[in-house]
User: What shape does this take?
Amino acid sequence: MKATSKTVRTVYFILKALAVLFVALLVFVLARPLWNRYVVYPQLEAERTALWRKYKKPAKQIPLKDYKGVLHSHTYRSHDSRGVLPEILPAAQQAKLNFIFLADHRISDQDTFPRGIHGTFEGIVIESGTESPGASMMVNPLKSTILDWTQDRNQLIRNVVKEGGMAFYLHSEDDHDWGNPDYQGMEIYNIHTDLIDEKNPLAFLFNGMVNSGAYRHWSYRELFNEQTKILALWDSLNSHRRIVGMAAVDAHNNQSIRARYLPDGQVEWVGSNSKTIAVNKPGWKEKLLLGKPDVAGWAFKMELDTYFHSFNFDNTHIFSDTLSSRALKNQLVNGHAYISFESLAEADGFQFFSTDATGSFNAMMGDSVPREKAVRLQAVSPFPVRFELFKDGKLIDSKDNTYTYSYATKGRKGNYRVVARLLLRKEWLPWVYTNPIYVY
Ligand SMILES: [Zn+2]
Assistant: This one.
């Protein structure tokens, strides 16, 4: 009798301890996401609304239109994405994109172009392209052709560029032949690159699940870290020749749990990286969870990286007279572009240019200009920002809380680029990175 009651007491004590431990763990795991939900994100939201009210359209100096889009995005043509046009297009419209340059994973050694989703859809230019494995790059030949990936990589880049196509290095954290003379540019930001450096991916995931509603854009931004190493590499490469910097979304829309009805009435469950988890006859679980299929056929979805949130995260703006993949590519490889983080604020109107002794515009980002002509470097922003001027990779000047910026070069040659930062919750967040003006 005594022994039994002692056992009961011990079991009761262990259960109580476990319960306390469980609650403590729950509080520990949930504290940060809840703090974000009820304190940090409402504050960010209010400050962003206040910032957006300060919008002032800058006068046009660069005589070309600003087209906003994304580079390096994936579709169902990639093994790890199921993205189809009826999902991509509304997301692109919501994010106000003018163009998408795709980089679908290579499926075969003989790679045909154009293919998959390619053309102009409701005013949005979509160009097909490939992301090659290994030392990854994005290749967009921009014409009807077949690429043979068994040939020498450097030879392939040379041919694509010579034939009027585009070749950019992706995933700048990886090894590349940086001395290759033919590639035209590189990623200076990629959401995936930024995600894999998270020290606590589980905390990021958990926060994303708790804050997946109205604050998803803020929980998504928790992955952001300034890519100082990659920016330094970019600056050093630019001391040899022009290497264009671009922003990549690497959007797959594949960090999710989804389900759809198959033609034979069975249900396919799809998990992370668009892998099939199970195919089964609909049971109680399906009856409970599945609803009416959406435009892409998904009858259930719980997702983190929607196309919209990726398309609205970081963008590349290209200055061009025409909205076509050919015109955009020609301007981009000349560096007539800047990158921005649009969930903070829309950057349309931002410009960085040089003026001569009379104050007239004579060159824009990406251009080379003789030092006697680049008398002043100027930047204008639709929102008050901190302007930072970098010369050959070194911060040489900055100015806070202003819409306009001007700097006298005094005839000093170098590569000048601008970073603009927005003030949110007492932090100057990087918002715009321009390509350099090359003063020689
Ligand atoms: Zn990719």
Remarks:
- The first strand starts at residue 65 and ends at 73.
- The chain has ten helices and 26 strands.
- The chain has a mean pLDDT of 95.
